[in-house]
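Quick start: read one record
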Amino acid sequence: MKSLYNIFFIMKKFGVILAMDNKNWIWKNNDLAWKLSADLKYFKEITTKTEDLWKLNAVIMWRKTWDSIPSKYKPLPNRVNCVISKKLQIESTSSNIDDFVLHFNSLDHALEELEKKENIENIFIIGWSSVYNIALVHPMLDKIYLTEVDSDFDCDRFVEFDRDNLIIESYSDWQEENGIKFRFMVYKKA
């Protein structure tokens, strides 16, 4: 049996990408509480961009995040979609979905299996407070791509986000869309 140290030693580092309001809330009624086209564009750019054109990035999400994605956008294109669920049967939305969607029962299981795939360049955690809270304290966390939304949206999903052991790698100027101020921050684990 592998020790936890050995599992963490062989695993690739990963990033977390999320948007949250100024009180660390991320979702309301199983959806984003705000609609920002610039944030969606940023999300797509970060999670699809690779240095090696022959490789793809992987996005790991909780089943509830998968369920919240409209059927016409499943799987997220040009990325390997990884769904964490205790029930591994996820309904397919196209005939070739299994080529782009992998199912796992834990974050560590997903990370361990993705490490074995030579065609994966980067790994991003993209959804649901449960998996974010695990990922943000995980030893293999490398970067956090955060969209800071400067407002309080009275959401119902919270993320434990401690900036104490993080270094700001980059940030954008504040922007505004639909009356909502926001900016993009990239943190690196210290």
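Confidence is low (pLDDT under 50) at residues 5-9, 92-97.
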